[in-house]
Amino acid sequence: MHLTITTLLATSAAAALEKATNLPGFIGTPQKAATPSPAPLGEKCEGFALDARGRLEAHCRDDQLNTWFTSLDLNACVGIRKGLLVFTTRGGFAHSCAACEVRVSTDVTLTCVCLDDLGGSSKSELVIGGDVGVLDGRIIKEAS
Question: Count of domains in the chain?
Fold first, then answer.
C-alpha cells in the first residue's frame, strides 16, 4: 500500500511539472514556451485596431501560417511620462490619452494625444513593434 501511494505521488508530481512547462495553446492544445518570432510585428500581423480601452487587436500568423485573432492590453505596458508615450509596467496610458490610433508602415506605431504634467495636451508617438512581438500567433509584450 505504501509503495502504491509513493508511485502515485511521483506520477502526479511529474504530471504537474509537465503542465507547468506548457503554455495554454489554441483549442486546448498545449504549446511549449518559445522565443518570440524575430519577424517584425507588422510582417506577422494585419488588420490592426485599437479599442477605446487601449487593447491592440490584430490577425496574426503562427509559424505554421495559421491565422489567429489576438489582442494585447497596452495599458499593461504603455504609460505616459511628461506627456509622452513610454513603455513601462502597468502604465495605464488610456486614462490620460485620447484620439489614439495604430499606424502600420515599416513598423507599428501607437499615436495619441496625451495630457502632460501641466494639464496641457500634446501628440505623442511610440513605435511598439520593437517591444511587442508575436509568439505562436499571439501578440505579446517581449521581455525587456
Answer: 2
